[in-house]
């Protein structure tokens, strides 16, 4: 066993330096923000004072001074806005760097935020994967997920969690590894992406609900009479307005004016009634598809971040090797889905943004007075919904792929940070020979432990049909070593580097029986719960044996221990 020196010190120093720069800039901007705040208050109060004196105190010279103070107030507001926007951006940047630092320092309290823990808890996994995730600390508070994750959006969190808990398949892992190695040197691009992802996560609607709407049926298509009435009501409103104008200004006829007035009121009453009675589902669709105009723009910005991905041309210009070329090939698929072509995610969100601009009339206090007559006399919401469903028809078959690619992109960006921070961690070797199905590790360490206390071991598990029996006294590191193997298998499956000098493995799936608990409410004892878990593992291993594409690596500690207590003595 050998101790492991720190290899992430350079990255940690770099992150702390960035944090110090951010804090310095924030302190300077806070001073400017407070100054602008004081100026705004003073100028506004001066404007009120001089207006009162000028308009009610018969001191006319005070009136222009009041207006000058008010103009100064408006200028101060305009100048203050970029300062506050920059402070908000720095807050997100600080959050990113604090998480990067916390990952290296293994500060689980800072990493396992309430919102992220809730999102992880909502990730749906098969029973076996959920058990392995709990036993090996793949998800949860002090877990592998928190060590490697810089994900912020729901698709990214879900994708990375599924990679960590799913089977480690050689072909998938090799492709991801090449992409990760391509992204690892792109530090500035990755940092900008992390910040943008956090902005999207804070402000945008639920992508799952959006995808469900986009791929579902069109509400207005089965209610075509609403579109017809929207057109008829707009025409009638125009006719009635013309009647009022003719009657009042041209013909001087009260009859024509009254016909136009009452007709216009009738159209308005019908449309307002329809808005309250029939258009509730339409407004629900607006809240899903266009949570706000800003939310659509945020996702467009995040998708557009894929523009910074390297291309085949970059590979040729840099004379990169086959590994980088393979990584770029994988990233090219993501790039094509997110930003290339007329039906890419960026193009789709740009088109949706135009619809959202029309729908935003009802959401803004500044434009609500424009929205009211448009809705009352022309059913504006129906017109927006019609455009929205045209968008839905054009993009419904590709929307799910957008967010799937976004999840992959965000996961690869997260794992690229690990590759950059730990250059001494090795790239796993994958065994394609079906006759060699053992896991071999040299100087393998537990990746969740801090660098300065980690202990490394050489270990081999397999081939199939063999058993590795680990014995030792209490607290001697038996479970730690076993979990080291499982955690590094999970890392290898994602395409990330592993905490070892050498790590060779076949395509493999993990199964565990470690943290088993009883269930008294269902009458299941601890002993029976362990038997149930073992049966699940055996059944799953048999299924994998029939497939012959991957093998099962099973971990258990103190299986089927039975203990009774009688008369105060343990038996």
Automatic annotation (TrEMBL):
GO terms for cellular component: cytosol. GO terms for molecular function: ATP binding; ATP-dependent DNA damage sensor activity; mismatched DNA binding. Keywords: ATP-binding, DNA-binding, Membrane, Nucleotide-binding, Transmembrane, Transmembrane helix. InterPro entries: DNA_mismatch_repair_MutS_C, DNA_mismatch_repair_MutS_sf, MutS, P-loop_NTPase. The chain crosses the membrane at residues 35-53, 65-83, 228-250, 256-280. This is DNA mismatch repair protein MutS domain-containing protein. One of its GO terms (biological process) is mismatch repair. Residues 469-542 form the DNA mismatch repair proteins mutS family domain. It holds the Pfam family MutS_V. PANTHER family: DNA MISMATCH REPAIR PROTEIN, DNA MISMATCH REPAIR PROTEIN MUTS FAMILY MEMBER.
